[in-house]
Write a structure and sequence with these properties.
two-stranded antiparallel sheet; globular; 6 helices; single chain; eight-stranded mixed beta sheet
Length: 310
């Protein structure tokens, strides 16, 4: 039985505003978290069209993993190890899929729909039958649910943050009952890790990790509102392309450092369209399924993880 959770994440925004804020947040976060050689490599970012959902944007990314794995795991796995993210963004409806290059039984699927309400739609994504019965609904509070200490930043704490341009915030207790505008991200997450003996624990851990990342990302989208609120969709698409270019440049720069002997742990692998690239350090929370505890991280290491929550 695949573990199915529906996360409902309210924001003090409209659905139209969040369209820009989401794209800005993902592009900026990806770039910032590539500083230490960790990065998401964008392979494809192009328009797409669906007979039901209409025109949208398709992206494919590789979230490289090799260098964040324990050495004993590096010794036995192929020298190419990454998460593949495929996303179809037909805003306000999106589909995102994650698969693994080395663990074919591991997959995560996220269906998302955005609505201008406070999370009151009972079955927003139209689940039927067994999925509806098995679904667990989890309300995520961007202001009062705590992020882990390694992710916490005071300037992103929505209990205290106020936008200078919109004057929205800080968010008081029970803010969802008093705040306007308000919208909700409805996200049905299906985590599957069909390996006998560890399936339940692995799927629960994946869901816990995804919840943390959804909480962090939505907090940042609002905390950065003054940087994106004046942008149009065309503006943010231009910003997104530029940040993806810079992020890919950082990923490829790690290859140069490794070849120069500055990164002795880099492994040979493949890159987007180019042969012989070395895999950068992981940028994915799924590495926690294999990696040692955070206490083993080197001093000053940035442990922020990333998934796209389109």
């Amino acid at each position: 039985m695949v573990l199915i959770k529906e996360y409902r994440i309210c924001m003090p925004l409209t659905v139209d505003e969040y369209h820009v804020g989401q794209l800005y947040m993902i592009a900026r976060h990806s770039y910032e978290q590539t500083e230490n050689g960790e990065g998401v490599e964008t392979i494809i970012n192009a328009p797409c069209e669906d007979p039901v959902h209409g025109k949208g944007q398709f992206t494919e990314k590789r979230i490289h993993l090799s260098n964040r794995l324990p050495y004993w795991v590096q010794a036995i796995i192929p020298k190419l190890f990454y998460i593949i993210e495929k996303s179809w963004n037909y805003y306000p409806f999106t589909i995102t899929e994650y698969t693994c290059s080395f663990i074919p039984k591991l997959s995560v699927t996220i269906h998302t729909k955005f609505e201008d309400n406070s999370g009151t739609t009972e079955n927003c994504l139209g689940l039927t039958g067994e999925k509806l019965v098995e679904r667990i609904v989890d309300f995520v509070d961007v202001a009062y649910d705590e992020v882990s200490p390694k992710h916490y930043k005071e300037e992103e704490d929505l209990k205290f943050f106020q936008s200078k341009k919109t004057m929205r915030g800080p968010l008081p207790e029970n803010w969802k009952n008093t705040t306007s505008p308000i919208m909700c991200s409805y996200k049905v997450v299906e985590a599957s890790f069909e390996v006998w003996g560890i399936q339940s624990k692995a799927e629960e851990y994946i869901q816990k990790t995804i919840r943390e990342i959804l909480l962090l990302g939505h907090r940042q989208a609002f905390a950065w509102i003054d940087d994106w609120i004046s942008m149009t969709i065309a503006d943010v698409r231009t910003y997104e392309c530029e940040m993806q270019r810079k992020t890919n440049t950082k990923v490829n720069a790690c290859v140069t450092d490794a070849e120069a002997g500055e990164n002795p742990t880099a492994l040979d692998g493949e890159g987007g369209g180019g042969g012989g690239l070395k895999s950068p350090k992981s940028f994915s929370p799924l590495t926690n399924l294999f990696s040692p505890s955070s206490s083993s991280s080197s001093p000053g290491q940035n442990n922020t993880s990333w998934f796209s929550w389109r």
